[in-house]
């Protein structure tokens, strides 16, 4: 098991917030939220209380090739900005994807290591839900870039996911758009393939919201639910695969 000194950033000293749990006079749980399913590398500190989650600090850097270099410093930065140290953290929430293998894995490994080292529960949320959560009117396609000219997508009705997540080429979604009577789209994948999708694309949200991810896990956080295995939503095999066994060329 890891301890605090083995995390990729040092513990920070300062004002301590109340940690996790519901007993006694606990008013909120301080939650570290991470998401690396898209090019927006996100770390945040969110207070989850009896009502809505409150954002204490957040860092978002859009760079699809530097998840590993960016996430740990971002976590350190939000802790410092909030005046909290690692011992104040009561839970960790992570976006599960879908997302490309390498970037998504960074966030989930980091979240799992923090939960293990700090002995606090970890909870996972579909990253697309972090976009769809705020789309509370009508039917919306949420799509993020899956590379290979494909998108990760899900459909939301009044903020609730009704189908997905899945991965397809944008041109192959015509049937989905018709079946669910989709009237608008959101997310960086939708913006990139707006012409192909043929529905209006909202300017915001573009990437998963840390507060939305925390809100979606809030019931579990408040209840002190058991820690969850952070199972990534890859939806397809990684680009790098183990080579097949070589065929014998000598006669037997």
Kindly describe this structure.
The relative contact order is 0.18. The protein has 2 domains: 140 residues, Nucleotidyltransferase, domain 5 (2-Layer Sandwich), CATH 3.30.420.40; 69 residues, Nucleotidyltransferase, domain 5 (2-Layer Sandwich), CATH 3.30.420. The longest helix is centred in the middle third of the chain and has 18 residues. A 5-stranded mixed beta sheet has the order 3-2-1-4-5. A 4-stranded mixed beta sheet has the order 8-7-6-9. The chain contains 7 helices and 9 strands; from the N terminus they run βββαβαβαβββαβααα. α1 packs across α2. The protein has 252 residues and is of the alpha/beta class.
Briefly say what this structure is:
The protein has 252 residues and is an alpha/beta fold. 27% of the residues lie in helices and 26% in strands. The chain has 2 domains: 140 residues, ATPase, nucleotide binding domain (Nucleotidyltransferase, domain 5, 2-Layer Sandwich); 69 residues, 2-Layer Sandwich (Nucleotidyltransferase, domain 5).
